[in-house]
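Handout, section 4.2: multi-component inputs.
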Amino acid sequence: MTPPAVFTGWGSALPSTIVTNRDLEQRLDTSDAWIVERTGIRERHVGGTVADLATEAARNALEQAGTRPEDVDMLILATTTPDETVPHTSSIVHHRLGLGGGAMDVNGACAGFVYALVAAYGSLAVGARRVLVVGADCLSRITDWDDRSTAVIFADGAAAVLIEATGGADPLHGGPGLLSHDLGIDGSAHDLLYCPHGGTLAMDGREIFRRAVRATVESATMALSRAKVAVEEIALFVPHQANLRIIEASCARLGIPPQRTAVVLDRTGNTSAASIPLALCDALGTERIADGDLLLLSGFGAGMSWASAVVRWAS
Amino acid sequence: MSDDATFEKFKSCAVEVLQVPGDKVVRDARFADDLDADSLDLVELVMALEETFDITVDEAELDGIETIGQAFDLIAAKL
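Output:
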């Protein structure tokens, strides 16, 4: 059991350069209609570095919380596209913001943010008070812009949340925080989605589609079961933003209607570790989340890895 | 199970996943032209068929599947 904790701040950061489907029509044998029908994506942001985007998102979260950087005990940066092999990009972000405590990167591909969030609650359980969790990726750097199967999907962005331990009831008895989680991986699926050093992403879209739907449904169902929460009690489902068709197929199987699902990929594309917190921040910005709401977060990605969490929101 | 009964089960999956009327789900119907179904719709249909018939279809087996009849034969051969 992790201690009760609240979200005191959140923030996002997107590069200023927007690439629309119309822009891609100019350079690829594709069309706006095809991209929207197959993916739900209309435009995406590209540019910047993971350190730049993560720093901006984290700064926004700190400012909203009114928390001094030095009072943060841990920074966990979920990214699958670190700016350098060494050192970990979180060290740059930690330095730029003047954070206290330690910092580490977590690479769980598109499931990375939920992995990082679970690790953050674990940090609270061993004594940290405030943990900054950031998802940030610059997938445009490892995308072949002449490959229409991947160029229309992948993009760049970052979003952050600051969680802080609080008193009161534990999450399984009405308090805020993490009720349950489910983490898993099937490393035999390596060849479905990978990128060698210096190369670009290779993807078997059809098989990923099938596995993604099943992994999302099974993992989300496991997390709900462990939390002893019925799917009808979930106020908002925040899935990984890979493809609207995957989200719709998963929601249909889980029994979650579109009005209780967060979708941001029409404006962001697939930003890997940043996608779930970007969707979360977008939902908060449009006041779709209230204190006491139960949220279901669920991600899947290369590995193939998957991760789900049930969280009771309080700010 | 008779072929007719198997096809009826197959058809109800197709009606649900592809959201088409049952009378359009005939052997000669082409996924793209007659049922307005794209490659991801076919993947979703096969997922539903795998679960309904408790079989496994490899992704490579979907290559060249263009009609309801071809998809049905692929499934029927596994029963």
